[in-house]
Amino acid sequence: MIFSRIVGTGGYLPPRVVTNDEFAARLDTSDAWIRERTGIVERHIADASQTSSDLALEASRAALSAAGVRAEDIDLIVLATSTPDYVFPSTACLLQAKLGIKNCPAFDLQAVCSGFVYALATADNFIRAGTHRRALVVGAEVFSRILDWNDRGTCVLFGDGAGAVVLAAGDRPGVHASVLRADGSHAGILSVPGNVCGGSIVGSPYLQMQGSQVFKFAVKVLDEVARETVAAAGMQLGDIDWLIPHQANVRILEATARKLGLPLERLVVTVDHHGNTSAASVPLALDEFVRAGKIRPGHRVLLQGVGGGFTWGATLVTM
Ligand code: ACO
């Protein structure tokens, strides 16, 4: 039987750090409000010249290097983003060109903050089908480009960045189980309801959110999908060494861990210094904890996404 396994992780954060005090200097908000309601202290924001594919390139190079895999050995690229460089071609194709490789399939996947978990489950299926052996799975975002910087209710929450993994075929899991869900009837509570039409933007180019509805929905579905995924893998919640939920808000993360009965020491938190980086948040968090030597080979990690759509899902992996 063929399984897939994460054999290398990488991450990239743009150098510019924006603190809560920078928002407080020009908006009716404060460091104390942002910390108390979200747990966020600072976030990284891309330079105007940097696009999602630039961030993805740095994260991918780091993942390839950690895996000891050459770019030309990659035979599949799946890239999750809601902030692509262009309408088309896909950011995955632009990344492929920047990596200097050709011919392998490369495509974007749009599931907002669940994007990386969706992408990982997709690549796992390609590998288990036996058609591909070494996939680059990436989450890359410049959410700073779709924020109204005068809306204190949304602009303080997000950051830019990219995370990547190399997923390789092997004879033991690896990826044990994935559960993906969506419910489009909740599209209105979190959206960027605009598009490019006839040379201008129709609708709004800015993120809009009903924060408290998103909060309640996220806690509910993160609890449900964790239980479904662990059951699908034939395991118990107590078998999980690390929980990496999508990094939206410390209160959402801690409420999820509490509902699942997992000690906070097993909860991975990076939202305090990354902000919410949407599809990049889970692979960035994974990479940070792997490089810190906290997540080690053999550890069981539950990766969880939840975001616009609404979409949500989880993947249980042994590192
Ligand atoms: N500074 C100061 N006051 C603020 C700010 C701010 N940055 N933002 C909102 N407020 C005000 C509101 O205007 C409101 O004022 P009012 O009572 O006078 O109307 C007050 O604070 C309370 O607003 P609430 O929305 O009730 O505050 P809440 O405790 O729900 O926190 C928050 C808001 C942080 C957005 C929270 O709802 C949340 O985190 N929701 C989840 C949203 C999220 O994570 N989205 C990310 C994308 S979705 C995803 O990734 C899953």
Task: Please tell me about this protein's structure.
- The chain has 319 residues and is α+β, with helices and mostly antiparallel strands.
- It folds into 2 domains: 3-172, Peroxisomal Thiolase, Chain A, domain 1 (3-Layer(aba) Sandwich); 176-318, Thiolase/Chalcone synthase (Peroxisomal Thiolase, Chain A, domain 1).
- 33% of the residues lie in helices and 27% in strands.
- The protein is built from 10 helices and 15 strands.
- The strands form 5 sheets. It has a 5-stranded mixed sheet with strand order 1-7-6-4-5, sandwiched between helices. Strands 8-15-14-13 form a 4-stranded mixed sheet, with helices on both faces.
- Helix 3 packs across helix 4 and helix 7 (211-232) runs parallel beside helix 8.
- The longest helix is centred in the C-terminal third of the chain and has 22 residues, at 211-232.
- The mean pLDDT is 98.
- The chain binds acetyl coenzyme *A.
- Acetyl coenzyme *A binds at residues 29, 33-34, 37-38, 113, 152-153, 156-157, 190, 209, 211-212, 214-215, 218, 246, 248-249, 276, 306-307.
Key structural traits:
single chain, 319 residues, alpha+beta, Peroxisomal Thiolase, Chain A, domain 1, 2 domains, 5-stranded mixed β-sheet, 10 helices, 33% helix, 27% strand, binds acetyl coenzyme *A
